[in-house]
Design brief:
This protein has helices at residues 2-21, 176-182, and strands at 35-41, 52-56, 72-74, 77-79, 83-85, 88-97, 100-110, 115-125, 131-144, 154-157, 161-164, 170-172. It is mainly beta and 189 residues long.
Length: 189
């Protein structure tokens, strides 16, 4: 009987620890803090690739679409939703073409208030047979409130313009010579 009483506190601790790993009712999917996020491919600085900026609203990350991913069937692909796995969020997708399959696994980590990172591994058939594995990482940091001209879903692509990820509208960026004419302080001297 004494051993059984001693095991109860241990079982209670184990149960509490396991419960802490389960998502709370409000955590059915990852949610970023509303505001402007700078998003870049890890290592993109080395190749001169500018980061994008994404305006996240209160309703940007929902069960239907979160972290810029809409789970469900898309043509020959099945996109899985992000689900909690310990401290991370994991999503898996499979695309099939005939007997071939491309499988991806994305792992999102971070506090989603000031920063997050998504590491993705894509496995596909190699031209010489066997499997090929590609890895990519996206890192993001919160910059502050969205700019006054932005609305939730706006993805600013440097040198191109703004694509709204919610409704698909695109606003082209003015050519550089027009921006200089509108702002004399940017004119070449």
């Amino acid at each position: 009987m004494t051993a059984a009483r001693g095991a109860l506190p241990t079982l209670a601790c184990v149960a509490a620890a396991l419960t802490a790993l389960l998502p709370s009712p409000g955590e059915a999917h990852p949610r970023r803090r509303a505001g402007l996020w700078e998003v870049r491919v890890a290592g993109s600085d080395a190749i001169g690739m500018a980061p994008t900026r994404f305006c996240v609203g209160e309703q940007t990350d929902t069960a239907r679409s979160h972290l810029d991913r809409s789970p469900g069937a898309r043509g020959s692909c099945s996109l899985g939703e992000f689900v909690r796995s310990g401290e991370a969020w994991v999503a898996e997708s499979v695309c099939r073409e005939g007997k071939s399959a491309v499988v991806s696994r994305a792992v999102a980590t971070g506090d989603f208030e000031t920063e997050y990172r998504i590491d993705t591994i894509v496995q596909s058939p190699a031209p010489s047979g066997g499997r090929r594995e590609d890895r990519e990482a996206v890192v993001a940091r919160w910059l502050g409130p969205c700019e006054a001209s932005q609305r939730p879903g706006d993805l600013v692509i440097p040198g191109m313009g703004t694509l709204n990820m919610d409704d698909g509208t695109f606003r082209a960026e003015a050519p550089q010579r027009l921006r200089r004419a509108a702002d004399p302080s940017k004119a070449p001297r």
